[in-house]
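User: structure tokens for this one?
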Amino acid sequence: MLIISCRNRNGQEQPKTPNDQEQLSVFLAEHVEIDGKLYIPLDGSGCISRNYRVERGYIGPISESIVLDLRECHKVIGYSPAEYGVLTTWMENMRVWLVGFDRKK
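Assistant:
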């Protein structure tokens, strides 16, 4: 009984698995210089879209990536590539650790 109560913190149930989520990533074309100022052209730049799933048995992409117009990524908030790698590794390690508590395996 004590072990079960430790797993249920403050009476809260296990969080529900989030719905599939779209992840957007920007890629930019090589800058050009005009009158001493640098510009990123829209041509050659874009927005990569891919759907991801986080669930008990899997964390990762569930669709092929597609390239969208760069303006589709106008509200992107994210991580640097190195930080994203650390985050996703942590998520997978946490998933495996949490599955170890699940007696319904």
